[in-house]
Amino acid sequence: MLGFLKNPVVVTAEINLSLVALTVMGLMSRLWGLSYPRAVVFDEVYYGQFVSLYMKRIFFVDDSGPPLGHMLLALGGYLGGFDGNFLWNRIGAEYSMNVPVCSLRFLPALAGALCIPLAYQILVELHFSHCAALGAALLILLENSLITQSRFMLLESILIFFILLAVLSYLKFYNLQRHSSFSGRWCFWLLLTGVACSCAVGVKYMGLFTYMLLLAIAGLHFWHMLGDRTLSNVGAQLLGNMGLTRGLALLVIPVAMYLSFFYVHLALLYRSGPHDQIMTSAFQASLEGGLARITQGQPLEVAYGSQITLRNVLGKPMQCWLHSHTNTYPIRYENGRGSSHQQQVTCYPFKDVNNWWIVKDPGMQQLVVSNPPRPVRHGHIVQLVHGITTRYLNTHDVAAPLSPHSQEVSCYIDYNISMPAQNLWRVVKHNILHLKLFISACYLSHCSNSESLLFTFFFQWKILTLKNEDTEHKYSSSALDWITMDTNIAYWLHPTSGAQIHLLGNVCTWASANVAAVVYTCLSLWYLIRRRRKIYDIPEDAWQLWVSAGQICVGGWVVNYLPFFLMEKTLFLYHYLPALTFQILLIPIVLQHLSDHLCRSLLSKSMFSALVVAWFSSVCFAYRTFSPVTYGEPLSVAELKDLRWKDSWNILIRKQGR
């Protein structure tokens, strides 16, 4: 019975030491000296404000993108014990001791480091050699711009991590398709594809580009599957199940997850904050502080004693709220017309405490809701008391200041003259709510309604429609500048020494990536023309491998780069980094293809290998040359001048450099 104990329990595992070594080197390159500089670096001044608001649970809206990236940065602050107390007002400001700098920068650095093994595995799943996969990982490892962007409290490294994870997950799922459909691993990688896509879009809307690319590739693969005669024995039902599974994992789950990010965001931020004004009154009332102090305990249905706002929903050019303040109409206007000199009532386009009115029963002095509440119905007579000044909404036979053909609306001040108050209003409800002056035919056509919305969808809509006034920035650039790296960004400058940090790429890698893209395009066109004439220069399996690599790498570069030519927003060099990552993956693919299919003789292969070694040495040289401005090492004036390889680069030079 216990015979199995006679033999030892043995566990075997395969460990890819190259992958382990790459991961360790990636962690070292991104995590080393992470707390330096202990000062605000470039867009940390922007993202840090949101981290502080998360720490204090104060509601905000960031019109630049969804909340997942901000929440991940805030998670780093939470794990480091950050209390949110720091004034993010300028780049270069020294962090106070309560700011856990290392913790705030840790997750972006970790994500940047993990991009290196992901790049290796992507090329393996594309069925390229270990040498090509190693080359792709090393190029990502030695890319100065990716290192710089990973080492600070910024979002691009997290975005690229989720993008690469989505690509790798889909490739693993696809490679399991023929032999392991509906297995545990098959389902896992398919689900992880959808999750990673959702996270990429949740970090930045730029993630949508890669998500759309993967959806297109998945649709194309499924279309080919439908026409594959070798799968004719599978059956229509199983193919239908495969399609439904893909739809669930790549459409339904990502959308649900994406919306859940906003739900979590709203659940975390329960205190009133600086961006309440753009949200609905009902949402503002749900926050601690702010309107909640006014509306707490108010019935959802308008009743006598209710505190309400009245909004003109048909107003042009924008909707506005009935508003009053202590200012009065002038005794006489510039054209000589007289006025009532009563308190002004206006239509104000912004939410303000002076927009609130109390619904009063004319027969009672009570200004609070009774228990039980007495609802206001169609035909009821009411008075409206301004919440701040306690004066009654009023009108009389005096010409309005801007529309002389209409009666003036005011808040009544008793000057003890022959101008009695006319402040009784009848509620007349048609398609919208009107208030009709009880003793005349005057209508105050504003609407008042209880706003009940699905705040998650509304919050998303607000982000998409919120207009951010983009202004020209010193380091902004055009998309055309990115390919040849004609621009840079100074992220940080030490106040006394020559130490500085710049977003600058590895010049050799960027140039090689452009060459690889051109070579791939030209070779692909050549092959297509030749294949059209029934001339096959490479085997069919090599052709399929070439096409698959292009779908991912060239497609990834195209969808992450070309849309910026259509965007009317301030652009920076870091916007190019996701596209650059795909382009870098293309370099070893092209090199392996040239070696395998164009170098036919042993001599040509040897010469090509020697050229590749020399080229990679230049990549290493460029990496080391620009490392000082990647990691912020002190430099002399002469050393800084030597780094200005292009006149368009803005390398900051001070006389007091050592």
TrEMBL record:
The keyword Glycosyltransferase applies. GO terms for cellular component: endoplasmic reticulum membrane. Pfam families: MIR (PF02815), PMT (PF02366), PMT_4TMC (PF16192). Residues 299-362, 373-430 form the MIR domain. It is found in: Endoplasmic reticulum membrane. It catalyses: a di-trans,poly-cis-dolichyl beta-D-mannosyl phosphate + L-threonyl-[protein] = 3-O-(alpha-D-mannosyl)-L-threonyl-[protein] + a di-trans,poly-cis-dolichyl phosphate + H(+); a di-trans,poly-cis-dolichyl beta-D-mannosyl phosphate + L-seryl-[protein] = 3-O-(alpha-D-mannosyl)-L-seryl-[protein] + a di-trans,poly-cis-dolichyl phosphate + H(+). Pathway: Protein modification; protein glycosylation. Its EC number is 2.4.1.109. Belongs to the glycosyltransferase 39 family. PANTHER family: DOLICHYL-PHOSPHATE-MANNOSE--PROTEIN MANNOSYLTRANSFERASE (PTHR10050), PROTEIN O-MANNOSYL-TRANSFERASE 1 (PTHR10050:SF51). This is dolichyl-phosphate-mannose--protein mannosyltransferase. It comes from Pavo cristatus (Indian peafowl).
